[in-house]
Design brief:
Elements lengths: L9 H17 L10 H8 L10 H12 L21 H13 L6 H21 L7 E5 L2 H17 L9 E5 L4 H10 L2 E5 L9 H11 L4 E7 L11 H11 L2 E5 L24 E4 L1 H4 L7 E5 L2 H7 L31 H10 L1 H23 L4 E6 L4 E6 L4 H14 L6 E4 L2 E7 L7 H8 L8
Parallel strand pairs: 2-3, 2-4, 4-5, 5-6
Antiparallel strand pairs: 1-7, 6-7, 8-9, 9-11, 10-11
Bound molecules: pyridoxal-5'-phosphate.
Family: Belongs to the group II decarboxylase family.
Protein name: Glutamate or tyrosine decarboxylase
Keywords: Decarboxylase, Lyase, Pyridoxal phosphate
Length: 452
């Protein structure tokens, strides 16, 4: 063995790969979940030592303590927040990608990986009906994608009009919390528009709010292409008209919902997307890829590059003639986090993606129908995508919380409460084509004492 400060026996690598193989085959344990600091610290607190605890002991901490104290978002019974449902192909490949150690910030470092990632971005651009000029980059998550897109939007707008005293963006009151976080980072105001009863921002309502707020200060309209809490898709065509009329940038937050572009039957929901200036979609949500990745795409990639990129003398040797992903978002070093999506797409084909999305939507409809038929449970909303909101009429808020926690602990179902129109309700968001409606309805039957 060469002299190295970090000796590591091949058997230790085997141990890790064996566990990885089993985990990918079996999936996560639905009974796993967060543990308290008090439970974790006695085990993990002393794990960094001067001499090291060795490969076996360190990996045992991972398998026996770290993994069991995390939420099993990839399990088919995990129906809260926006979970994740990575394909086995994508998960397996991700392990290899880690081993390959590719620097994908610029072409010099990661040409092949970047070219392959761009195939996946091209697929998404084609689904949106965008021209050859479209392009972008995979960033860590939707928050960073929204920030990078909206920075490009303001940069673009600032080249057309005089800078106002305060910039503002306009979005639905149902916009994801990341939009407000981005506005804080950018130090811009947020003009919110009240959505309709289904949580959808209409073009007319947005127009009225824009006119009232003063369009001169606004640089972008942010449309929901799948609002997180209620699944609503805004009136994208109406928003595109509005953006066109006032010379504004239209950004679509499709972190969750734009995955449904892959299903031809769902595509009409996004009518008007062809006129948007940018969108994001997170493959780690509903495009069957592992954490973490967000596809950020500009209809005109040059507008993204005009706003981003870093210059430094030590970077002068980087080949600027080629496509450098670091020029399209707020980052420099990056892993080729779009490659697990590329690999899974290449393996299974895009039709399989369309079918998986269609199946997830069908599962949602089946569950919603079952809930609607339950006595004592009010179905409040079934989105066109995969969010369901409902309320058991006989339960108090603390009882709802207790019920949710009991099912989380037993591993039967992760179904947590949210708030809708001022009251606590249960929310399901299904992104896993392996979710079994009968199993879910069986658990929900305990809300009323009836097993379905
Ligand atoms: C619609 C929407 N936008 C943005 C985000 C933020 O994405 P991320 O958590 O990947 O930063 C989320 C996360 O759930 C989301 O649902």
């Amino acid at each position: 063995m060469t002299d190295t400060p970090f000796p590591f026996a091949p058997q230790a690598t085997d141990t890790i790969l064996d566990w990885t193989r089993a985990r990918i085959a079996d999936g996560p344990d639905p009974k796993h979940g967060a543990q308290s600091f008090a439970a974790l610290d006695p085990v993990l607190g002393g794990s960094i030592t001067a001499g090291g605890i060795g490969a076996d002991a360190a990996f045992r901490l991972f398998t026996d303590t770290i993994v069991p104290s995390t939420r099993p978002f990839g399990h088919p019974t995990s129906l809260s927040f926006v979970a994740s449902a990575p394909s086995r192909a994508a998960l397996s490949f991700d392990a290899a990608l880690g081993a390959a150690g590719i620097f994908a910030g610029n072409w010099d470092g990661g040409a092949g990986a970047i070219h392959a990632e761009n195939q996946a971005l091209r697929w998404l651009s084609d689904l949106a009906g965008w021209p050859d000029s479209a392009g972008g980059v995979f960033v860590a998550g939707g928050t960073l994608g929204n920030l990078s897109a909206l920075h490009a939007a303001r940069d673009w707008r600032a080249r057309q009009v005089d800078r106002p005293a305060r910039w503002a963006l306009l979005c639905s009151a149902e916009a994801h919390s990341s939009i407000k976080a981005v506005a804080r980072v950018m130090d811009v105001d947020v003009i919110t528009v009240d959505p309709d009863a289904q949580g959808r921002m209409g073009g007319d309502a947005a127009r009225a709010a824009l006119t009232q707020a003063g369009p001169e200060r606004v640089f972008a309209i942010v449309g929901n292409a799948g609002a997180t809490n209620c699944g609503a898709v805004d009136d994208i065509a109406g928003l595109a008209d509005l953006a066109e009329d006032f010379g504004l940038w239209l950004h679509l937050d499709g972190a969750y919902g734009l995955a449904a572009l892959a299903d031809p039957a769902a595509r009409p929901l996004f009518q008007g997307i062809e006129w948007a200036h940018s969108f994001i979609v997170d493959p780690h949500k509903w495009l069957f890829a592992p954490y973490d990745s967000c596809a950020l795409i500009y209809r005109d990639a040059a507008a993204g590059a005009a706003a981003h990129g870093q210059q430094a003398v030590y970077l002068d040797t980087v080949d600027k003639a080629h496509f450098n992903p670091s020029d399209y978002a707020i980052h420099l070093t990056r892993r080729a986090r779009g490659l697990p999506l590329w690999y899974s797409l290449a393996v299974h084909g895009t039709d399989a993606y369309g079918q998986a999305i269609a199946r997830t939507r069908a599962i949602t409809q089946d569950i919603a129908k079952g809930i609607d038929a339950m006595p004592g449970v009010e179905l409040l909303l079934t989105s066109d995508l995969t969010v369901i909101l409902f309320r058991p009429s006989g339960m108090s808020e603390p009882e709802m919380e207790t019920w949710a926690e009991a099912n989380r602990r037993s591993g039967a179902l992760l179904c947590l409460p949210t708030r809708w129109r001022g009251q606590m309700v249960f929310r399901l968001c299904i992104v896993n084509p392996e979710t079994d409606p009968a199993q879910v309805l069986g658990v929900l039957g305990s809300l009323t004492g009836d097993d379905v």
